[in-house]
Write a structure and sequence with these properties.
Length: 442
């Protein structure tokens, strides 16, 4: 892991229930870190005054849609870029309403940290558990519990301690190992950027201090190299008559000239003969660089193939995965879909909806409850599915590799995204309702 530097980048997402104050927190973070332009602040002040508010409503800095401003809720994912002298940030402010849980999946899919807000008056609620489960499902490495509106509970330490203990225990049961709880008041600015004068009992960092110092990134050499081929380059010019290169973005790991690699799904083996990056030859490439790889042998390789070094995944047509359903159109057993994995898209059949994961039920024996999936998955549902693809795919387990263990299910009729999938089992679950036998796929 790397430590914070002036050039390091942290991608993080905010989540929480409606009216927990996510947009106000993000606005406060931008405002107090001096990341708001003067004309932006003037526009917010003007709109706030028009509503009869004495102080500027900082939530308007992120709620950009007219419907969001009218209703006072976040609907779409709002991405914001800002920087401090210690680090650069890309922030995804995700919706809190259960109707838009799928948007959190989008916002947190590339995040290295998730900030989950809780209203100190309400504590951990159903949507809090849902967002914690999504963060765990997506393998977000770091989670911050921001207990907001502490000013409305008289800055009481016991209130904060009880909420922090309940959430930390729940997150730990989902496999989240790094959880930090911070008591804040986004409206007043307590412990967001500056330490609070009202909570001298809290000795931890402010939210921004933690964001600036939390370890980010990973050591590419600790992961096996995975290189999905995006484009085959064959100039066939007088200058380069025999050049054959495979262009793409290194999804994980490190590739070096001379490395033994396996091309999947064909299984052919060869070695890396050369690496071209930014028009120059290089001896090494690491994720997430975009490069062109040349191999020692002429092999039939096309877009969608995977060049793998180290232990290679076994190509298969039968895939079991934990999924988050994103579409208003339900996902049912027997549905024909397209499956997009890295740069490869194949036809697939939903053989079975094994079960739905009930993240609103109390955890039993340290496990989430699973319920019958025979009726399929509706929007925002989490569940487990079995798929059969027309062509073999080389997927890693999502717990091992977020890039090559993830995929999308797409409606073949109109190209809309139906479901986000994570290969393998994401959670330990216990069955509470036996599902009837599924009709055997033919």
């Amino acid at each position: 892991m790397t430590t914070a530097t002036a050039t390091s980048l942290l991608r993080f997402a905010t989540a929480g229930s409606v009216d927990d104050g996510k947009s106000t927190l993000v606005g406060r973070l931008l405002h107090d870190s001096k990341s708001v332009l003067a004309d932006q602040l003037e526009a917010v002040e003007r709109v706030s005054l028009g509503r009869g508010q004495e102080a500027p409503d900082l939530a308007l800095l992120t709620d950009g849609l007219r419907a969001e401003r009218e209703q006072g809720i976040t609907i779409d994912v709002a991405y914001r870029y800002f920087a401090t002298p210690r680090r650069r940030f890309i922030l995804a402010d995700t919706p809190g309403h259960v109707q838009y849980t799928r948007n959190m999946v989008t916002g947190a899919s590339t995040a290295e940290l998730a900030v989950v807000l809780v209203d100190a008056r309400n504590g951990v609620v159903e949507q809090t558990r849902r967002h914690a489960a999504v963060a765990a499902l997506l393998r977000v490495p770091h989670v911050v519990l921001a207990v907001n509106k502490m000013d409305l509970v008289e800055y009481a330490e016991p209130v904060f301690a009880a909420i922090a203990a309940e959430f930390t225990a729940y997150a730990a049961s989902l496999g989240v190992k790094d959880v930090l709880a911070v008591p804040i008041s986004a409206l007043a600015g307590d412990n967001v950027v500056e330490p609070s004068a009202h909570m001298d009992w809290y000795g931890g960092p402010t939210l921004l201090e933690h964001l600036e110092t939390v370890p980010v990134g990973s050591d590419p050499s600790a992961e096996p190299a995975r290189f999905p081929v995006q484009y085959v380059i064959r100039p066939q010019t007088e200058e380069h008559p025999d050049y054959r290169g495979y262009a793409g973005q290194l999804a994980s790991g490190v590739l070096r000239v001379g490395d033994a690699v396996t091309v999947l799904p064909s299984g052919h083996t060869t070695t890396v003969a050369g690496i071209d990056a930014l028009g120059r030859e290089s001896d090494i490439a690491w994720a997430p660089q975009s490069v062109t790889v040349r191999l020692a042998d002429d092999i039939d390789i096309s877009r969608g193939d995977l060049i793998a070094a180290g232990p290679a995944p076994v190509p298969t047509k039968d895939i079991e995965a934990t999924v988050s359903h994103l579409s208003e159109r339900p996902l049912r057993a027997g549905d024909k879909v397209l499956l997009k994995h890295t740069t490869r898209t194949v036809r697939a059949l939903v053989k079975e909806i094994s079960y739905r994961i009930d993240i609103t039920a109390p955890i039993r024996e340290g496990k989430l409850e699973q319920r019958s999936g025979a009726e399929g998955l509706d929007v925002n549902d989490l569940g487990h599915v079995v798929l059969r693809t027309a062509e073999p795919l080389a997927l890693d387990s999502y717990t091992d590799n977020r890039r090559t263990g993830s995929f999308l299910l797409i409606d073949p009729a109109d190209g809309t995204t139906l479901t986000a999938g994570m290969a393998g089992e994401a959670f330990e679950t216990v069955r509470t309702t036996d599902a009837p036998d599924e009709e055997e796929w033919v």
